[in-house]
């Protein structure tokens, strides 16, 4: 099962060209639409593709899929790649356990189940029972679990479900003793979980007003409201807890404190890391109305409340500390002047904090790999959690009174293992370790450092079969994201494993715009500095070529969502550097992204075309839809999206594909793969994941004229 550069027949070479496969793109009609941005006229000839409900758009989708399906079906790499991907995907997977009301909860997938199943047990040694099986909710597996919240006594389970990959959720309540759902049904929830009061009589959640007819999948989402739902009552009687009629961008995240006496409210205004913080007293663990009390609503930094202990609110923040610190706030005198630093900012970025067993467990990234330090209630460091290796650890949830917590550990060559951590003794023990067809002993990962255009240094992780020959001929797939304070760290994925087992090299780049080195690193890749992100990714590609890992003929790039924007922008800026590019569910129209669903919330990273002439010029200079170079030779491009994507609406990918196909960009294929009854990616059933991602790898292999056995 490897890729080879030899024994390529003339027919195989010809089969990779668009002309040889008789590739003829649909004739996408143009409209006379021109918009003025700060005295600059910008044509938008494919504006009509923004209407996902129109018959014309639906017909266009069918036509594009017919062309793409024909091309993909003719690739000799398709079936072998799908077989390998299926073999590697078919292994038992576990989620991180958590404890509530005398029960443990965790997810499990036997390998090829469409959705993960929720299990529960009184102890870790008991035979677990199924608490919830989303696979029974739809025949095609497109109904997915979107959230989970057990009541404090462990008797009831509030859960959210979403259909066809949409961000819209419906919440229900299940009696775990009977396995039956109660009559309670909560609609029009988006970007919210549920938080139970400790008395078990109800929970808090956030929702939007019902969308207008035809606007469900593309209409802008504003004015989120926070409610309390009392069990046994209709949603229409839910109590409004918080809203902001003056600021349409406010949204709410909630958590009830461990002692049940406080509702901790995070107030967000965008997809960025800056937020506000409020608290609402819950006398005797019950909701009694009242108005939330602000701790800070300056939206000048990140504030994550992790515990309320002894009249103090413990908060992780980057206020005055770009790499993060831990502070204690006196709830009787919450003015910032009185905040006490418990754990000061250090040289590494603090990415996570939790309060378990009278300890603070703080996760840091050291050159994009996880370190976990344990601090006492007074903030003094006591120890470190011993991790299995240089990789990514996550989890460590729990309550102040718990004596155990769980975490997952993974690397590019290590499938996620679940470990138990005893807070008192510091002992780490293995809970679950998956058995897969991927033999990690045959592969290795190394961390290298790349210097970008402006001298900035950042890490890349290179995973490949041991004994990699550096001759520039290795088929290499480079992945990146670079935005919204999201850190890209080494972790196992079947896409990477399949590519490596086929003989390829898989590389991830921890570039600016992410959170790998704290808030300053994130901000260095935002708004007028967004080009830094693209420069970093290009520098990673150039490093791979210079160091003979790959060559422009054997280097492909991939990314999704903001990473799709990354791939689109970099492809347009350096089409000579790559053989293939796969932007997935990308933000491709940077002049209009803010007009759809939650797009306005991304302005903290991107800025908008209306902000200023300078901001418009910056966006216009890299917007993938607007920077396609007529007459340049482009790599092979496979665009992917879902027709129910209401996060990054599919119009982005539609317009990008139409523009690419209409331009003179060389003979390499420019295709779009539109998944029906699918969204941005969350909750996608296993069958669709395997089909889409194996097609991506087969497309890249086909482009590189490589055999897959």
Q: Give the helix level as a range of percent.
A: 10-25%
Q: How confident overall, as mean pLDDT?
A: 94
Q: Provide the low-confidence segments as ranges.
A: 1-21
**Overall outline:** globular
The computed structural class is: alpha+beta
Largest sheet: 8 strands, mixed
The DSSP helix count reads 11
Strands of the widest sheet, in order across it, are: 33-34-36-35-37-38-39-40
Which band does the percent of strand residues land in? 25-35%
Rg estimate, integer Å? 25 Å
Number of E-type strands: 41
Features:
5-stranded antiparallel β-sheet, about 700 residues, 8-stranded mixed β-sheet, disordered N terminus, 11 helices, alpha+beta
């Amino acid at each position: 099962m490897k890729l080879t550069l030899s024994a390529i027949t003339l027919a195989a070479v010809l089969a990779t060209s668009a002309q040889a496969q008789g590739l003829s793109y649909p004739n996408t009609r143009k409209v006379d639409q021109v918009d003025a941005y700060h005295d600059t006229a910008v044509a938008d000839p494919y504006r009509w593709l923004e209407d996902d409900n129109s018959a014309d758009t639906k017909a266009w989708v069918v036509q594009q899929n017919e062309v793409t399906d024909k091309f993909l079906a003719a690739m000799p790499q398709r079936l072998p790649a799908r077989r390998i991907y299926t073999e590697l995907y078919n292994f038992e997977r576990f989620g991180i356990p958590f404890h509530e009301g005398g029960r443990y909860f965790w997810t499990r997938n036997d390998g090829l189940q469409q959705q993960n199943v929720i299990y529960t047990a009184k102890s870790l040694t008991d035979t677990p029972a199924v608490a919830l099986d989303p696979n029974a909710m739809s025949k095609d597996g497109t109904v997915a679990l979107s959230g989970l919240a057990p009541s404090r006594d462990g008797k009831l389970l509030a859960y959210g479900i979403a259909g066809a990959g949409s961000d819209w959720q419906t919440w229900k309540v299940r009696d775990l003793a009977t396995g039956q759902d109660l009559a309670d049904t909560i609609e029009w929830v988006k970007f919210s979980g549920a938080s139970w009061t400790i008395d078990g009589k109800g929970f808090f959640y956030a929702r939007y007003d019902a969308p207008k007819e035809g606007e469900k999948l593309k209409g802008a989402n504003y004015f989120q409201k926070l409610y309390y739902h009392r069990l046994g009552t209709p949603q229409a009687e839910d109590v409004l807890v918080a809203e902001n009629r003056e600021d349409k961008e406010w949204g709410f995240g909630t958590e009830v404190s461990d002692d049940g006496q406080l509702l901790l409210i995070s107030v967000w205004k965008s997809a960025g890391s800056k937020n506000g913080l409020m608290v609402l007293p819950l006398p005797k663990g019950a909701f009694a109305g009242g108005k939330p009390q602000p701790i800070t609503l300056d939206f000048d930094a990140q504030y994550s409340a992790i515990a309320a202990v002894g009249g103090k609110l413990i908060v992780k923040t980057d206020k005055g500390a770009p790499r993060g610190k831990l502070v204690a706030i006196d709830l009787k005198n919450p003015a910032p002047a009185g905040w006490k630093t418990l754990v000061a900012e250090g040289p590494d970025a603090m990415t996570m904090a939790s309060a378990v067993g009278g300890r603070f467990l703080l996760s840091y990234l050291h050159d994009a790999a996880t370190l976990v330090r344990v601090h006492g209630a007074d903030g003094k460091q006591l120890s470190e959690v011993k991790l299995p290796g240089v990789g990514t650890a996550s989890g460590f949830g729990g309550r102040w009174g718990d004596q155990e917590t769980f975490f997952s550990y993974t690397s590019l060559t290590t499938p996620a293992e679940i470990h138990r951590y005893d807070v008192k003794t510091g002992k780490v023990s293995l809970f679950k370790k998956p058995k897969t067809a991927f033999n990690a002993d045959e592969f290795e990962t190394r961390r290298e450092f790349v210097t970008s255009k402006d001298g900035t240094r950042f890490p890349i992780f290179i995973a490949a079969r041991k004994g990699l020959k550096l001759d520039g001929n290795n088929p290499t797939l480079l992945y990146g994201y670079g935005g919204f304070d999201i850190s890209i760290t080494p972790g196992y994925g079947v896409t990477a494993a399949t590519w490596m087992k086929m003989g390829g090299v898989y590389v991830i780049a921890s570039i600016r715009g992410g959170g790998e080195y704290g808030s300053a690193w994130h901000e260095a890749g935002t708004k007028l500095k967004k080009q830094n992100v693209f420069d970093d990714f290009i520098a990673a590609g150039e490093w791979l070529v210079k160091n003979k890992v790959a060559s422009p003929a054997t280097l492909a790039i991939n990314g999704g969502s903001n990473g799709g924007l990354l791939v689109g922008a970099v492809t347009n800026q350096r089409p000579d550097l790559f053989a293939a590019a796969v932007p997935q569910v990308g933000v491709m129209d940077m002049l209009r992204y803010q007009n759809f669903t939650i797009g306005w919330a991304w302005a903290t990273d991107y800025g908008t075309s209306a902000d200023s002439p300078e901001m418009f010029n910056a966006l216009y200079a890299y917007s993938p839809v607007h920077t396609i170079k007529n007459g340049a030779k482009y790599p092979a491009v496979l665009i992917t999206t879902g027709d129910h994507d209401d996060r990054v609406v599919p119009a982005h990918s539609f317009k990008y594909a139409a523009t690419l196909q209409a331009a003179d960009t060389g003979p390499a294929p420019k295709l779009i793969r539109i998944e029906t009854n699918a969204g941005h990616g969350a909750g996608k059933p296993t069958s669709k994941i395997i089909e889409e991602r194996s097609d991506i790898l087969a497309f890249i292999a086909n482009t590189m004229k490589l055999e897959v056995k």
